[in-house]
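Re: your question from the hallway

Yes, I did run it. Sequences:
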Amino acid sequence: MEQHDTPHKEHTNTGYGIYILVWLGLVSLTLITVSLAGFNLAGLTVVTALLIASVKSTMVINYFMHIKYESVLFKVFIAVCLIIFLVMIILTFFDLTYRPEILTK
Amino acid sequence: MSQIHRDDFGSKMGMWLFLFTELLLFGGMFLLYAAYRFAHPAEFVLAAQRLDVTLGTINTIILLTSSLTVVLGIVALQRNSKKLSIFFLSSTLAFGLAFLVNKYFEWGAKIHHGIYPKGPELANMSDGEGLYFGLYYAMTGLHGVHIVVGMIILVFVLVQIFKNRITSDNFVRFENAGLYWHLVDIIWIFLFPLFYLIH
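Structure:
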């Protein structure tokens, strides 16, 4: 675990540039998602909006939250957390699909 | 130089574990949103027309920029430019405040139009629209509380930088405060399209 004692040492060389670049990407994706909402994409509207939001979050997690340069343990933890949340979503929608009456009182 | 035990790795891990509980807190509300939108798709679209997309877009860009200035503040501190770091961190606080001011005007306009619990306009709406606004107030409200808490934490960081308690070789508290701020940013990244951009 020697390398973990000074995790910040290995990334002192990451400069301002990469973060400004990521920020430009995030702002561009925001403007794209806003303009896409103007078009009628029918059933794909939610999917594209969520897809863009996921790409933006991945950028924030990897660069701003530094996970790209962090130990693999952090990545495993995040993956486990997201899988738990995904399972919750899937099970809820199973319930909503097969027992829709639960939502109508 | 006395040897003080420090575990930056453990400290960050602890912060991430806390962030997971935050993710599941908001996750539960997103699930509720998904279930109700699934049940009332047309009403959600109708209710969303009442939100101001321009104001929402501006707030999104404000939050993204505030996240940028946090990381720039950490880089500046790592490079021993304390003044620059304080400047970036103060900009984050200013952006956070700007976000809250926009939210105040946004909520204020809704309440002025009678859209609030037991309000005259909300009473005329369908169940689905009522649920949309219930979720809107609950979720953006809880998010707003997180912005306030995040700003308080960042003020503590700012004071500690001033007092040289957070320095170029001891800045894990700054990083952890930043992680919290970024999480609040990520939550907004999802709230924005789900509430403002439904058609």
